[in-house]
Amino acid sequence: MDRSVSKRKKSYNSYCVGVYNVHPYIFLNYNRDIDSLLILAHELGHAIHYYIMNKNLPFRYTEFDSFIGEVPALLSEILVLDYLYNDKKYSTYKKSIINKKIEFIKYNIYNIGLEQEYVERIMRCNNEINKQTLDKIWADINTDYYGKKYKLNHFNKSSWNKTKNLFDDLSNCKYMISSYLAFKIYFNIKDGNKEYLKLLINAFSMEAKELLKQYNLSSNSEYYLKAIFYEFNKNIDEYRILECVKKSL
Ligand SMILES: [Zn+2]
Question: Which of 13, 115, 150, 218 has the greatest number of beta carbons closer than 10 A?
Answer without folding.
Answer: 115
